[in-house]
Amino acid sequence: MLTEVTATRYITPLREGGSLPGLIEADDLGAYVLKFTGAGQGRKTLVAEVVCGELARRLGFRVPRLVTVDVDPVLGLGEPDQEVQALLRGSGGTNLGMEFLSGALGFDPVAFDVDPEEAGRIVWFDALVNNVDRSWRNPNLLLRRGDLWLIDHGATMIWHHNWPGADASAARPYDASDHVLRTFAPDVGAAAARLAPLVTEDLLAEVTAAVPDAWLHDEPGFDTPDDLRRAYARPLLARAATVHRHVDGIEEDR
Predict the structure, then answer these.
(1) Mind listing the pLDDT tens digit for each residue in 14-47?
(2) Torsions phi, psi for 124 (to 5 deg)
(3) CB atoms within 10 A of CB 164
(4) Domain boundaries, the chain
């Protein structure tokens, strides 16, 4: 389970993302990037953030700490931005918070270097979860004190938008030709040898258990939140063993 906090102050919108996340302060005095259940992408984006973020953390990647944030819609009454007001009014209840990494810089592949081992680990992980949003246009990587941090996993596991076709969709190759780290000679094979054995049924059960029931209710075709949790785990377990053989677009850089 994720730690639960309550939003006490809305600080400012962060307009880098299409979902208009916001910076908030919570009752634990921490600052978090808030992602709203009422945003246009819906709760599946938040499920993807939790599943992929918590999986990445357990595989040894640096990921900002995730929490659930209880939001009272009245928090937005004094907010002058009408779009932000609407988001706060429409997102009462459980939302997602990501620890704000003070001092972090956006990763620039021209200005910073990444060794092939780390590049390979990140490309392999993105192939596992089918992350289509780690390009040079939008790296979704932060550099803090010399370390790379992975952020923003809402555009992953595209198969959860069409569960009847999930198995076929999850079996597709991963196109890394636009990946921000493709030019760093990522050693995907070495990453697979190290990380794939760690992706087990037990690990995925632990990861999916972190998703709040409130985001899993009423999904067509599933009777209970746990049924849906198992559906999230199955494609990831299947991909882990073989996805490194189906990463396209980086052969010339190996």
Answers:
(1) 976 566 899 999 999 999 999 999 988 789 999 9
(2) -60, -45
(3) 10
(4) 3-99, 105-149+159-253
